[in-house]
UniProtKB/TrEMBL annotation:
Gene Ontology molecular function terms on file: transaminase activity
Species classification: Bacteria, Bacillati, Actinomycetota, Actinomycetes, Pseudonocardiales
Record keywords, A-Z: Aminotransferase, Transferase
InterPro entries, per database record: Aminotrans_V_dom, PyrdxlP-dep_Trfase, PyrdxlP-dep_Trfase_major, PyrdxlP-dep_Trfase_small
Organism whose genome encodes this protein: Pseudonocardia charpentierae
Domain Aminotransferase class V: 49-204
Protein name (database record): Aminotransferase class V-fold PLP-dependent enzyme
Length: 359
């Protein structure tokens, strides 16, 4: 059992696989177990899960830097980004990073049959090339190797009129950054946010979150993609203005906020999110980054690599997968390298374990 940032984690030494599956604090796992027990005994009631959904939504909004009214819930990044991709008009030009996680790029590539074009470029050139395109879709931190995108360059491109869609899955939870300026920020919860799989969120810019599509000039946005409007393609009862008054019959009566894009919640996943996200949002985010990045950079330094300012380390050395596995290090193979990720519950002992295995 490890204690980190005021919470207990039942995580083994050498667990460096948060970029694949985060380990929850015991209090969050206990909350999910209690909800499952209530279900098993037939005492669960559907409205009982609403407070957890609300708490998770509000904490996610805090982490991103937007009002909760601009956040929708879903189950996966690809489905939420797909709402944005489906809204693009024919002829829209989209830029993505080479080797981007496909939950970001595939939703846009799937629109090419109706005239949307998608171009790849090296991550390091995304900011420079962004003004050439109508929309840029990119992960804040790359899944395969932990490289970070130039957010300042993207924000400048956004001011000039290029729409920006961000996937914060590999950054939110350890990298403090104001992302509220982006048109859309999607994130799944089961990695760095330490939630059960089955919950994700989408924060939308003010013009996209408005029921009528908003006014880009009024909202301080450029004129790229005039008429660009996200539609609630998976509209459901939970997206209603009055959730429990929207379960039968027409007319359509969706929420005026981004809740109208909600998918029906996976209850137990939201119980976990409601237990852990408010705690994460309340931590000293600078201290969290210093802890996670400090451990990762210690590994880089021990391997003769330069500091990178990322909590993810890609180890590409002969025999590394077998040697690390034999030493009890849990990581993932990604793009031909062993991906190691350092989170709240990791310690200097994990750094020593990696360096000893690769010495």
């Amino acid at each position: 059992m490890h204690t980190a940032f005021g919470r207990e984690f039942d995580v083994p030494d050498g667990y460096l696989n948060t970029a694949s599956i985060g380990v929850p604090p015991t209090c969050a796992a206990d909350a999910v177990a209690a909800a499952v027990e209530s279900w098993r005994r037939g005492t669960a009631r559907a409205p009982d899960f609403d407070p957890a959904v609300t708490a998770g939504r509000a904490a996610f909004a805090d982490l991103v830097g937007v009002p909760a009214e601009r956040v929708a819930i879903g189950a996966s990044v690809s489905a939420l980004i797909g709402l944005v991709a489906a809204a693009l008009p024919a002829g829209a030009r989209v830029l993505v990073a080479e080797g981007e996680f496909t939950s970001v790029s595939f939703p846009f590539a799937a629109q090419t049959a109706r005239g949307v074009s998608v171009v790849e470029c090296p991550l390091e050139m995304i900011g420079t090339r962004a003004p050439e395109f109508d929309l840029v879709a990119v992960s804040v931190v790359q899944s395969a190797d932990g490289r970070t995108v130039d957010l300042d360059a993207l924000r400048a491109a956004r001011t000039a009129g290029t729409r920006v869609v961000l996937d914060a899955t590999q950054s939110l939870g350890w990298l403090p950054a104001d992302l509220g300026w982006a048109d859309a920020v999607a994130c799944v919860g089961y990695k760095w946010l330490l939630c059960p799989r089955g919950v994700a969120w989408l924060a939308l810019g003010p013009d996209l979150a408005a029921p009528d599509g908003g006014d880009p000039q009024r909202d301080g946005y450029g004129r790229a993609l005039d008429g660009f409007r996200v539609l609630p393609h998976h509209a459901c009862w939970y997206a209603g203005g009055d959730v429990w008054g929207s379960i039968y019959g027409l007319p359509l009566r969706l929420a005026d906020s981004a809740r109208r894009f909600d998918a029906s919640p996976a209850w137990f996943s939201h119980v976990g999110a409601g237990a852990v996200l408010p705690w994460l949002a309340g931590l000293d985010r600078g201290a969290v980054r210093e802890h996670c990045v400090g451990l990762a950079d210690a590994v880089r330094g021990g391997l003769g690599l330069p500091a990178a300012g990322s909590a993810i380390v890609a180890v590409d050395r002969p025999g590394a997968p077998d040697r690390l596995a034999a030493a009890g290090v849990a990581g993932s193979l990604r793009a031909g390298a062993v991906r190691l990720s350092f989170h709240l519950y990791n310690t200097a002992g994990d750094v020593d374990r990696v360096l000893d295995a690769l010495a």
